[in-house]
Each structure stands twice: as C-alpha cells, then as structure tokens.
# Entry
Amino acid sequence: DEAKSINAFYVILQHAIGEGAVYNYVYDVRQSDSTDGMYPIGELSSGMKNMLENNGKEYHTEPELNWCTYRCEPKEDSEKLREEIICGNSRFMLLNRQYMEGDMQCYRDLALKGASAMFLMITIPDGWGIKEFMDMRYTIEDRIESMFGNSDTPGLLLGGAMGNKDIAYIDVLLFDGPGFLRHLNDPLVMDDLHRCGDGSVMDSSVYAKGFCQNDPMVELRKRDRMG
# Structure
C-alpha cells in the first residue's frame, strides 16, 4: 500500500544519498503519477548538490542540527503534554513534529541506533515569575550540556520550551538513557542542577518522558524533597 511504499522509498533514499542528506534536505515524500521535473534516483545526490550550490549554499552529507526558534498556539483545554507550549527552540524539529502527530518513525529510527530521545519537565516554584523561571531553564540546559561532556553520561541537548501551565521542557538525546536517569536520581546531582545563583536550590518537581506519546512519565524529583 502507499504508506509501506513510502517507508520503503525512505530506506532506498537513505542508501542512495545518505541518511544525513535525507535528514538535511528531504522534507516529505509523496506519490505522483507524473515524472515531470524528477531526477533518476542515481542522479539525485548530484542534482541536490548542484541546486544548493547554485543558490549559494553548501551541500552537507552529515546531519545539520541547526537551532530553530518556534512559537505555538497552545490548546488551553488539552491535557496532552507539549500541546500547551508557547515557544521554544530546537535543533531537531522533526522529532517535535512527529511527537505531536503521534508518529513514532523518528523515535524508532533513533532507538535502532541505540539512542533515546527524551524530554524533562520542570514545574515552576511557588512565587517565581516566568522570566526568572525561563532564565533558570537556560541555566539548567547549560549544566546538562556540560554533563553530556562527561563520558559517563553521553548525550546531546536538543532544545527547550516553555508551556502556559508553568512547565519548562528540556529536550535531550541520550546514548545511555537508563544511565542518565540513574545519574539524575542522585539527590546531590539534582540539587546541583537546580542550584540558583544565591546558593539556594530551586524547589520544583521534575519528570522525564520519552518522545513517544505512549512512553511512561518518570518522576525524578518531588517539590519540597529537600525539606
């Protein structure tokens, strides 16, 4: 059927022009009854390269994870995670889009390569303003990115977002998901991650969830855990 044919064609594309080029330059694949304007698949890579270079751009065969900023129209009455996001930034927009659509293709492709895509949810502390909370989210992102420089917790920061229900999201790609969660479950690690400039520790709840709507939500830290 058409869906299976398109999935098979994506596999052919990945072998013909490389997974990086498919990620960088192929937005969609659709069935067509006409071949007008098409390249033979054996010439597609050179055709795409010429097209980009003729428009003053470089052709890259390695995946380009450029940062993108996005805004959303949150659904006030929705109980689904991430539907209340107002704005965010990401270097892997395809993952975000497929999660919202309930599509698991990208999630599965990553899992086949031994990687897991996950997001952390952090609740705003009582009495905090949105600007203060957003600044702290950026601080936590920086600390997580530094953590990924450690060979014990390999990973990649993919982005972050703010929701209208006083929740911050931090998106990560992990090469040892269980190890990363065990690391975060250490109270000392979690406190250092949420330590404010004055030395106090941000009082918030933290949860983790895979980029698949059916994945369970894991509680990492409860509000007032420090006492």
The longest strand covers residues 155-163. Strands lie at 68-71, 85-90, 116-123, 155-163, 167-174, 206-210, 217-221. Residues 68-221 form a domain with the Alpha-Beta Plaits fold (CATH 3.30.70). The two ends are 58 Å apart (CA to CA).
